[in-house]
Amino acid sequence: MTTEEFLDPTxxxxxxxxxxxxxxxxxxxxxxxxxxxxxxxxxxxxxxxELLRERAKPKAxxxxxxxxxxxxxxxxxxxxxxxxxxxxxxxxxx
Amino acid sequence: xxxxEQDPFxxxxxxxxxxxxxxxxxxxxxxxxxxxGSGREAGELVALVPPNFGRATVEKIAVNAVMAGCRxxxxxxVIAGVEAMCDDAFDLHGVSATTNFxxxxxxxxxxxxxxxxxxxxxxxxxxxxxxxxxxxxxLRLIVANVGGASARTMSMSTMxxxxxxTYCIGEHEEESPWDSLAVEHGxxxxxxxxxxxxxxxxxxxxxxxxxxxKDLLITISRSLEVISHHKSTHHGDTLVVxxxxxxxxxxxxxxxxxxxxxxxxxxLRKPVSExxxxxDGGDGLPAHVMAKFQHPETxxxxxxxxxxxxNLKFVVAxxxxxxxxxxxxxxxxxxxxxxxxxxxxxxxEGL
Lengths: 94, 351
Prior knowledge:
The structure holds two protein chains of two kinds. Helices cover 27% and strands 18% of the residues of chain A. By secondary structure, chain A is α/β, with parallel strands linked by helices. A three-stranded parallel sheet of chain A has the order 2-1-3. The longest helix of chain A has 15 residues, at 41-55. Chain A is elongated and about 60 Å long. In chain B, α4 (75-86) packs across α7 (130-145). Chain B has helices at 8-14, 28-38, 58-68, 75-86, 92-97, 112-115, 130-145, 181-184, 213-224, 244-252, 257-267, 287-290; strands spanning 45-49, 54-57, 103-109, 168-170, 193-199, 203-206, 238-242, 269-271, 302-304, 312-316, 324-328, 340-343. In chain B, β1 (45-49) and β2 (54-57) form a beta hairpin. In chain B, the strands form four sheets. Chain B has a four-stranded mixed sheet with strand order 4-3-5-12. In chain B, strands 6-11-7-10 form a four-stranded mixed sheet. Chain B has a domain at 1-200 and 334-351. Chain B is an alpha+beta fold. The chains are: A alpha/beta, B alpha+beta. Chains A and B meet through loops of A and α1, β2 and α3 of B.
């Protein structure tokens, strides 16, 4: 028995995970704040929005909300965010 | 000869593909024999496993089943378990990623219980039966290895529970006075099925003295009442596992499963006045629900513990001696995880 002969129990090509290039600045950018709809997520994002407006000059801050935190965001919501935003901040809470 | 640094068990630990216990090395020969047990093609896609949506082909399922210690004839049951937990209604994405405790519990009905020697009787949730131990373990390895919900990365359960190693029982149909879980859900008694249920650990309910159905169900309702916490409401699917002795007491009074559901559901409602946050404990009804009541302190509106009577699921399991039942809370968040049952597709008769 050699270890090279062991078959892979994982799906090694599932969902390649590569993070997007980081933005150099938030100035002039459209930032989406995504509430995953957990309790107090809106409180957290309210504060994040305040800080963003204080510390940067975004072109716009857009607020979106997942219908439920228990499942992935619907495909059309993800597509919309991707199409309209330069950056996304997704907030957990509780 | 295997050199010490190539010890197969250590190698598999290093690859991060075990559950913390040693696994059987998945050699080509073992995997091929396992695939043959299914009577299906190795490359056939059975399901995409959330949260990474890894492709659970028959071969990937077989690799994990070998590692878990399954016999080849278990594979059709493992495959049905994959189909059940990957059904959208089960919401494996949420069950795997939540900070809550849950793990899929697999409940086998039908002839496969006997053919494969799946324990339904004394110690059903415990160790000692290869089929229970390895079928449940194979499915957990698939969640981690194919779905990507391994304990150190995606899975962020605050505590989890020991069922995340393995969690598989058979229903003790021979000792049940009622239709089995599968028959209740539209399957024939001679079909083998696997149910996936997003489950906390079993919570024991002791009642040695109730001789009437109503008395016993009141005892059980008191344990159901405190699921999550005593003011938590609107739960989804939840399981009550009746021991054969308890089942006989209830059925002996002529109560059907529908009668039990109706009785428990109605009894498990509480007035708003008893569910106020900060009164008798900090938690309570969420703010958006509280906002509906002008004078909650005196409001007698009844709020149900369970959304609907059908959320109460019942099976009979365990040994014939012992007046114990178990309450197993489900995972209940907004769209909730539903109990999902799939038929075992077997190449062999009698499975």
